[in-house]
Amino acid sequence: MQAYDKPLPRGEDFNGDFYQFCKQHELRFQRCRDCGTWRHMPRESCQACGSFNWAWERAAGKGQVFSWTVIHRALHPGFAVELPYAAVVVELEEGVRMISHVLDLPADQLRVGLPVEVVFDDVTPEITLPKFRPSRIRQSSP
Amino acid sequence: MTLKDQACIVGVGESAYTRGSQKTVLRLVLEASRHAIRDAGLTVQDIDGFVLSSSYIYQEALAANLGVSDLRYSTTVQMGGASPVTALQSAAMAVTLGIAHNVLVPFGWNGYSEARISRRERPDAPSRPDNALSQALRNYYAPYGALAPVQHYAWLATRHRELHGTTDEDMGEVALTSRFHAQHNPRAYMYGRTLTMEQYLQSPMIASPFRVLDCCLETDGACAVVVTSAERALDLQHDPVYIMGIAEGHPYPADDIPNRPDFFKIGLSFAAPHAFEMAGVMPQDMDFAQIYDCFTYVVMLQLEALGFCGAGESREFVKGGTLRIDGDLPCNTHGGLHSEAHVWGLNHVVEATRQLRHEAGLQVEDCELGLVTGWGDFGDGSLVILRR
Ligand SMILES: [Zn+2]
Q: In the prediction, which pLDDT does A12 show?
């Protein structure tokens, strides 16, 4: 098996915590304990109320496509084999947005508002990247 | 008190614009600086302030090589490509308050031979120090293959297209305008190389919706301008060009693109109302606009932020030659970063100054008022409104 040769998150400080949860296949973001505001990227304090109290709360992992770019020229050789690939802005139900990939979907079918759900890609033994795929059709319970 | 009409641009200069300067950045900056000081009718001994952009050179070396022995004020702006216009703000403050008398605002880089943006994230590229944007870039964008500005700004462009119907041809209009203007500027890299819409549409896609020809040049080169007080400016060589209004602005948050409440609210959205209010003029009063054109769509987004048209309306605004020399708002009359050179937009300031002196290569007839924008990092912005 070929070594993973794409850039990996450096994972220092809070960013390391974020990726530790990903490794456990949990998508967690900081949420203010005082006013309830979710945030991403991780930060020291709440931009809404200034509080230093927060917890890593688990997100539902559901969201929708907000924007994207389809990349046709790799600026890092590790991505050359993936061309073309889409770097997608996903908006989570909790209100935070993140960059990711949407799997199982041709790039020309990306649409604003397309429902997606998180999947976890264990790219190395140490690092798991949260990615997304189109939401499965929800079955109505009998 | 405001900075309105307190300070003037009195000297402009540039090095040669090349691909492969074979010179140090410092050497390029020294050449541009000496031209600008001479253009002002000043000597090196008259210069007592520097405002630098980014950290390609340091003030100590600049002073020692230039011969500035009494440096009273020096600072450095860190706003990427928005820095040079913001630097004018610091320079204007310094000369207005008497902290310094004549401030040099230089910028140079070997943007082709040393610091190619298109090669920035290759493993063999020299590693860059951490900066304010590293957290987002290294931890949250790069692992998904989003490594460079052409990819990051494409997120803005794609959503704009999805919501407002902006097309390839609309963006092409911006590229064609710059290239058209460059045909009148022998200094421009694209001088002598015309461009048709067909050629634009056939250029290869880099990061949709951006093709090669949506992207600016990579250039080795330097520019410099000299700023002095309005009072001193009257005694100098050229008609002074007055800084009527100036402001910087930062998107919120500035260090992460996706998590902005209003995705299209850029630094310039904050800066523009402040600069226009200071100047006491309206966007419609402008005789020309030199708009930071790292990518075609970024010009369109800035036209909206400046108030030339409403949100989502830039696609209509740019149609029909509006931005051309004989249009309602001549834009990037030197060819811009797209077709003249990429000197972080300080070349836009040089061009605006020459326009207002009525000595430009492609002159906007009888122009009295014009503006220059800066754009950098993840959408930092700056705006200066100039008059003759
Ligand atoms: Zn809070």
A: 82
Q: What is the ipTM of this complex?
A: 0.96
In the DSSP assignment, the letter for residue B215 is: B
CB B221 within 8 A of CB B28: yes
Q: Is A36 on the interface with B (CB under 8 A)?
A: no
Residue with tokens 């896609």: B205
Preceding peptide of B106 cis, ω within 30°: no
Interface contacts A/B by beta carbons within 8 Å: 121
Flag if B147 and A47 touch (Cβ within 8 Å). Answer: no
Label residue A24 exposed, middle or buried (CB < 10 Å: 0-12, 13-18, 19+): exposed
What average pLDDT does range B96-119 have in this prediction?
A: 90
SS3 for B35? Answer: helix
Which residues 156-215 of chain B have a CB within 8 Å of chain A? 156-159, 162-163, 204-210
> Looking up tokens 């050497």, which residue turns up?
B27
**Per-residue confidence (pLDDT) for residue B117, from 0 to 100:** 63
Q: pLDDT, tens digit, for every residue of A95-120? A: 999 999 999 999 999 999 999 999 99
- Cα distance between residue B26 and residue A107, in whole Å: 45
Please answer whether residues B328 and B285 qualify as being in contact, where contact means their C-beta atoms are separated by less than 8 angstroms: no
User: What kind of fold does domain B7-113+217-387 have according to CATH?
Assistant: Peroxisomal Thiolase; Chain A, domain 1 (3.40.47)
Q: Would you say residue B317 has pLDDT above 90?
A: yes
CA-to-CA separations, B20 to B24, B113, B217, in angstroms, rounded: 11, 5, 13
Cβ–Cβ contact A14 with B under 8 A: no
Residue A59 DSSP label? P
Instruction: Give the global pTM.
Output: 0.96
User: At residue A142, does pLDDT exceed 50?
Assistant: no
**Rounded percentage of chain B residues whose pLDDT exceeds 70:** 96
Which residues of A fall within a CB distance of 8 Å from B157? Answer: 69
